[in-house]
Write a structure and sequence with these properties.
Blueprint: E1 2-7, E2 10-17, H1 22-33, E3 38-49, H2 51-64, E4 70-74, H3 78-87, H4 89-92, E5 94-96
Parallel strand pairs: 2-3, 3-4, 4-5
Antiparallel strand pairs: 1-2
């Protein structure tokens, strides 16, 4: 289960991003992209992300973001940060610890 709330340019993610919840994750990000140039994905309370969620982040950077838009991954848990490092997400997004 995942709960996503958008406020201003911040998308707070609570729970797990997996194949069952990935569409909600992607939709929340896309909603912010329509109006914001800086998007903060608050991952403080995100417990888990699988390859589906990683794929969304990769595709977002490759295909959707324009030159004026930025996404910040804010305070991912240590286990998620390690996954971002293994997959190279930390090389394409700013991560605030």
């Amino acid at each position: 289960m995942v709960e996503i709330t958008n406020t201003d340019n911040i998308s707070k993610i609570v729970g797990e991003v997996d194949i069952a919840t990935a569409k909600a994750f992607e939709n929340a990000i896309m909603e912010l992209l329509e109006t914001e140039d800086l998007i903060v994905l608050d991952m403080t309370d995100m417990e888990y992300i699988d390859s589906t969620g990683i794929g969304i982040l990769m595709n977002l950077k490759k295909n959707i973001l324009n030159d004026n838009q930025n996404v910040v991954l804010y305070r991912p848990k240590r286990s998620i940060l390690k996954l971002f490092q293994l997959t190279g997400i930390d090389q394409i997004y700013k991560i605030e610890k």
